[in-house]
């Protein structure tokens, strides 16, 4: 297989499957369910994940004149994005019941969005990163407003699009300034150009603008203003996707840029990341304390978790990259699981919105309440869950690097977070409110049960048996801190370094 094809094999599979879904969608009558298209999308996502796993045996792949580099780092995030997309598709198969005429477009957009996210994680050229970012962003902009006819959904889509376009401009200006300062937009060439640049201030300004653009995508403070409204208005399965997979891709890009492109400026950008991390934790947790709407509460929670994850960026490269990768996986499992449960409980019309609407859920849906409770205690960071080990790893990396105060701030904010997570958890097992006594919930379908089980098992395994994911995360760190991409590669090359 040609290296150019092999390097982007998962992206090719997702794109072809998405096109097939779009071509087949008009063949269905308006009133007919699009579940077969959903199963086709699921099949394509599984195939893309297997293709990513297959790429591991080749070590490092370079393609398209060095703009693409597939290694353990990119494969880690490819597998994570494929897993999130798979859970999203499973939880969405019955979500559009009664609204079948829009489901085909939705399944295709999930695939196209995942394609852009995967492209971001394996790109080592900033303009290629930008292409992947736009593919991912356009898909999520549309999906945010997919509950057609609902005013909050339209508001969410427009607000996300406008603010997202504004943030993208910062990222693009940062790329332009990086080229002006170093003469290249290749990440490895930028690292070499920083040693001889005559405009170090311009170079740091370019990095600051890039951090602002990515900070919006990961909803880190003070770039988080869009998050609560968009999460509240967007469909629940879309929120589960956009709160995990695009963030994972953006964090992967930021890891490559900071540790591989700008290591010479670490003493400067580490201070900036320190401030953003602390601000995100406080803004997210204090904002969540004041919310009664569950989706808005989890929106502020996602801001706080972006802060926890950014703590890893201030650690030594090997520890910081590995802990950031592991925390991203743990957060994806528990957060997409939580939104899968919310999707099942609320349905398309979102019958359960506030904490009061969840009161007494355990009496009618004990298994569903138990699963949601598991995700909540993992988000808190209770032992034997992925959330606990993720926080432990991140804070330990910060302590080993001497960032004691940032670790203390993280622990303090973890204590604050207990209040709003436990408030929802208590509601699940409390006596139902009078208006909830006769509430009915949709039955849990087989695909949704599979998605919920998959995320619950992943959350537990990441807490009690994290070695396999931890090993892949550590391999990712070693690849990222020792970039081997040649400055003048051919169109496609394969290196056996790093194979297992």
**Overall form:** globular
Determine the structural class based on helices, strands and strand pairing.
Answer: mainly alpha
Quote the beta fraction.
under 5%
| Oligomeric state, counting identical vs distinct chains | single chain
Query: What is the helix fraction of residues, given as a range?
Result: over 70%
Distance between the termini: 20 Å
Segments where pLDDT lies below 50 for 5+ residues? 484-490, 496-500
| Run of helices and strands | HHHEEHHHHHHHHHHHHHHHHHHE
Q: Based on DSSP secondary structure assignment, what is the total number of beta strands?
A: 3
Main sheet overview: 3 strands, antiparallel
Mean pLDDT: 89
Strand order of the largest sheet: 2-1-3
- Total number of domains: 1
Tally of individual helices:
21
- Based on CA atoms alone, the radius of gyration comes out at 22 Å
Structure, explained:
The protein has 500 residues and is mainly α. The chain has one domain (3-495). The protein is built from 21 helices and three strands. The chain has a three-stranded antiparallel β-sheet. A hairpin with a 4-residue loop joins strand 1 (60-63) and strand 2. Helix 11 packs antiparallel against helix 15, helix 13 (266-289) packs parallel to helix 19 (404-428) and helix 15 (317-346) runs antiparallel to helix 17 (366-380). The longest helix has 32 residues, at 151-182. The protein starts with a helix and ends in a 5-residue tail after the last strand.
């Amino acid at each position: 297989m040609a290296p150019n094809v092999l390097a982007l094999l998962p992206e090719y599979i997702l794109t072809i499957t998405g096109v097939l879904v779009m071509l087949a969608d008009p063949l269905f009558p308006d009133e007919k369910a699009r579940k077969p298209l959903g199963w086709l999308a699921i099949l394509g996502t599984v195939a893309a994940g297997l293709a990513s796993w297959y790429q591991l045996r080749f070590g490092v792949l370079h393609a398209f004149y060095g703009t693409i580099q597939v290694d353990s780092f990119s494969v880690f995030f490819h597998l994570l994005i494929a897993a999130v997309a798979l859970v999203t598709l499973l939880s969405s198969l019955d979500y559009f019941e009664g609204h079948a005429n829009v489901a085909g477009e939705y399944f295709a957009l999930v695939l196209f969005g995942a394609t852009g996210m995967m492209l971001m994680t394996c790109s080592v050229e900033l303009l290629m990163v930008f292409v992947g970012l736009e593919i991912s962003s356009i898909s999520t902009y549309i999906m945010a407003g997919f509950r057609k006819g609902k005013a909050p959904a339209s508001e969410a889509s427009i607000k996300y699009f406008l603010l997202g376009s504004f943030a993208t401009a910062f990222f693009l200006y940062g790329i332009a300034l990086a080229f002006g300062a170093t003469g290249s937009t290749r990440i490895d060439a930028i690292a070499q150009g920083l040693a001889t640049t005559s405009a170090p201030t311009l170079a740091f300004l370019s990095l600051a603008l890039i951090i602002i653009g990515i900070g919006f995508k990961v909803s880190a403070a003070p770039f988080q203003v869009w998050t609560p409204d968009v999460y509240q208005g967007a469909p629940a399965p879309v929120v589960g996707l956009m709160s995990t997979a695009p963030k994972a891709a953006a964090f992967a890009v930021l890891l490559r840029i900071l540790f591989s492109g700008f290591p010479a400026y670490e003493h400067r950008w580490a201070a900036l990341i320190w401030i953003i991390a602390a601000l995100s934790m406080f803004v997210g947790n204090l904002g969540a304390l004041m919310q009664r709407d569950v989706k808005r509460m989890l929106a502020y929670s996602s801001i706080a978790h972006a802060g926890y994850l950014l703590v890893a960026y201030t650690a030594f490269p090997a520890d910081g990259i590995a802990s950031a990768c592991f925390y991203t996986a743990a957060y994806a499992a528990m957060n997409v699981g939580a939104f899968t449960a919310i999707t099942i409980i609320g349905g398309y019309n979102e019958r359960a919105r506030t904490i009061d609407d969840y009161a007494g859920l355990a009496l009618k849906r004990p298994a569903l309440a138990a699963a949601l409770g598991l995700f909540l205690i993992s988000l808190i960071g209770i032992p034997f869950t992925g959330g606990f080990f993720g926080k432990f790893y991140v804070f330990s990396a910060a302590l080993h690097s001497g960032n004691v105060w940032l670790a203390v701030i993280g622990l303090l904010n973890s204590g604050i977070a207990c209040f709003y997570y436990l408030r929802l958890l208590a509601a699940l097992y409390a006596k139902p409110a009078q208006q909830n006594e006769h509430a009915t919930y949709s039955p849990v379908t087989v695909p949704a049960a599979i998605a919920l089980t998959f995320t619950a098992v992943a959350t537990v395994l990441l807490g009690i048996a994290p070695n396999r994911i931890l090993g892949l995360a550590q391999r990712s760190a070693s690849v990222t801190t020792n970039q081997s991409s040649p400055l003048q590669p051919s169109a496609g090359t394969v290196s056996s370094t790093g194979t297992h």
